[in-house]
Specification:
The complex is a heterodimer of chains A (112) and B (113).
Chain A: E1 5-6, E2 9-13, E3 18-23, E4 31-37, E5 43-50, E6 55-58, E7 61-66, E8 71-76, E9 85-92, E10 100-102, E11 106-111
Chain B: E1 4-7, E2 10-13, E3 19-25, E4 31-38, E5 42-51, E6 54-57, E7 64-66, E8 76-78, E9 87-94, E10 103-104, E11 108-112
Parallel strand pairs in B: 2-11
Antiparallel strand pairs in B: 1-3, 3-8, 4-5, 4-9, 5-6, 7-8, 9-10, 9-11
Classes of the chains: A mainly beta (112), B mainly beta (113).
Amino acid sequence: GEDVEQSLFLSVREGDSSVINCTYTDSSSTYLYWYKQEPGAGLQLLTYIFSNMDMKQDQRLTVLLNKKDKHLSLRIADTQTGDSAIYFCAESDPGTASKLTFGTGTRLQVTL
Amino acid sequence: DGGITQSPKYLFRKEGQNVTLSCEQNLNHDAMYWYRQDPGQGLRLIYYSQIVNDFQKGDIAEGYSVSREKKESFPLTVTSAQKNPTAFYLCASSTLAGLNEQFFGPGTRLTVL
């Protein structure tokens, strides 16, 4: 299957911006997603971007998509301690409706 | 309230025993999924189902079995053939159209002693 890669760990100070990066392999994915996982819980959809877009902004979140380089990023402005979690990027499988391939996850640690 | 439930939250079993993890959804979703999560490896798809009485293997199906007799339910059995069953198991569901957002249950942590 496709490989979706992320760095494993990111540490930022409260109030700074966080940037979490992801590289994916399937250029025909329709949607790319960012999910958030709180400790010991399931995942929740944080935001998504349609493949024909370059950027999407949603309050403190900015998603950038570079299709040429197959690179996706999530920027969190004014990072808070409540943002500490694992963040997964995911790509849709164009061959199978609703199937997703998830990245390895990036653990974001917010320090005071 | 609509959502996905998984039970139990924690499960302990002796090596060599089969164990079944429950997943129920009342979102009227057609598709359901089972993932396994291990530290540093992200989520890996075990099985998925897009319609009742039909399911497909994911990337790591060996040692697992599923059934989909009802739309609402998608139980996962971890058999004794699974070589390393200790993990966090997540169930999800989604529609088959549009954004296909997957909704996740709270997970079951299985420990095999």
